[in-house]
Amino acid sequence: MIVIIKKGTIEVTTCNTCGCKFSYEKEDVKNGDTDNYKRWKEYVVCPQCSCEVIIKQTR
Fold first, then answer.
1. How far apart are CA 46 and CA 59, in angstroms?
2. Model pTM?
3. Per the domain annotation, does 11 fall within a domain?
4. Cβ atoms < 10 Å from Cβ of 46
5. Beta strands 21-24 and 40-45: pairing type?
6. Other beta carbons within 10 Å of 28
């Protein structure tokens, strides 16, 4: 019998700067302020070029 120990949490995204396609998990997501007042973003850092890849951003 197959039993799920932990549901999958891996997401896949592509860096807009260098084109690197990589996977990340919840623990890799960071929060930060945007350049605009009272806005925030969730992002991961590209493992190839170290640029921020925005996952979610408030308006």
1. 23
2. 0.76
3. no
4. 20
5. unpaired
6. 15
